[in-house]
Automatic annotation (TrEMBL):
<dbReference type="Pfam" id="PF13181">
    <property type="entry name" value="TPR_8"/>
</dbReference>
<protein>
    <recommendedName>
        <fullName>Tetratricopeptide repeat protein</fullName>
    </recommendedName>
</protein>
<keyword id="KW-0802">TPR repeat</keyword>
<keyword id="KW-0732">Signal</keyword>
<dbReference type="InterPro" id="IPR019734">
    <property type="entry name" value="TPR_rpt"/>
</dbReference>
<feature type="signal peptide">
    <location>
        <begin position="1"/>
        <end position="18"/>
    </location>
</feature>
<feature type="repeat" description="TPR">
    <location>
        <begin position="226"/>
        <end position="259"/>
    </location>
</feature>
<dbReference type="InterPro" id="IPR011990">
    <property type="entry name" value="TPR-like_helical_dom_sf"/>
</dbReference>
Length: 281
């Protein structure tokens, strides 16, 4: 489930303001969103100061900067009261911090930020979060529950996985309804489902074959995103199909980094080099 959270970290789009449409290279005719003016993995405006700081801190894994941003948002919340966007911003910062603490294997930080993400994002939905943010909010709640499932007892982890499945399936449905199949978060939601089936035991629905079906669909929808190839390589390696694993690890090495996801791309390439060395002996 650690891998599920890592991919959801990348899953964080929102609309641009109407004034930006005139200089927008691509406007979705059905939903009126300027795809050049949105960050499809965050759900917040690219021109916003919060977004700039958030994207820089999350792309570099800067925990102190993320915590500073979180405290500023919390202070604004205390002073100005609840708004759905403010709650949403707080929730996605908590979610990025889950990923960082997972990498550091710091259980206390994981459980705290996962609990806060579920609570704050749930509150945003309860207060009427805009439709365009709902796919992401449900996905992050599911991911946070998946992170908690790693660090609680067996019975409680089963309930967390049920919640994970419910929220991520809801996120996939809402994403297609609002954004359409081709919008980037759609591919990552397939990757999230694939990781869930790969990284959980059979008695809670785990299946490498189901995982591959979802992960291949993610690659079809976004063939340039190298982390999806990493997921397929890991799945084949788990199945003992090392030749296929090598093929996909090699793709991770060969594909160029995407600047917006540079931090995760660099980490994936490092893992690919280690895996190829191990598999080739």
């Amino acid at each position: 489930m650690k891998a599920v959270v890592a991919s959801l970290v990348l899953l964080m789009g929102i609309s641009a303001v109407a004034e930006s449409y005139a200089r927008c290279g691509e406007v979705d005719p059905e939903i009126g969103i300027c795809l050049d003016e949105v960050d499809p993995m965050t759900g917040i405006p690219l021109q916003d100061e919060f977004t700039e700081r958030f994207l820089h801190a999350s792309s570099t894994g800067d925990i102190p900067a993320l915590k500073e941003l979180l405290e500023e948002r919390k202070k604004t919340l205390a002073e100005e009261g609840e708004t759905t966007m403010l709650l949403y911003q707080i929730g996605i910062v908590h979610f990025i911090l889950i990923d960082r603490y997972l990498m550091l294997e710091r259980e206390e930080g994981i459980l705290y930020h996962a609990g806060e993400a579920v609570k704050v994002l749930g509150r945003a939905i309860e207060l009427g979060l805009e439709d365009r943010y709902l796919p992401f909010a449900h996905a992050y709640i599911g991911g946070a529950m998946g992170a908690r499932a790693l660090h609680v007892g067996i019975l409680e982890s089963l309930f967390e996985l049920i919640g994970f499945d419910r929220h991520v399936v809801t996120a996939m449905r809402l994403s297609e309804e609002f954004y359409g199949l081709a919008y980037p978060p759609r591919s990552l939601m397939y990757a999230v489902r694939g990781r869930r089936f790969r990284d959980t035991p059979w008695f809670v629905g785990g299946s490498s074959h189901k995982a591959l079906r979802y992960l291949r669909r993610a690659v079809e929808l976004d063939p340039g995103f190298l982390n999806n190839y990493e997921d397929i390589a890991m799945t084949y390696e788990k199945m003992g199909k090392n030749d296929k694993a090598i093929e996909y690890w090699q793709k991770v090495i060969e594909l160029p980094l995407q600047e917006r996801y540079r931090w995760w791309g660099i980490e994936a390439k490092e893992r690919a080099e280690e895996a190829l060395e191990r598999l080739r002996g």
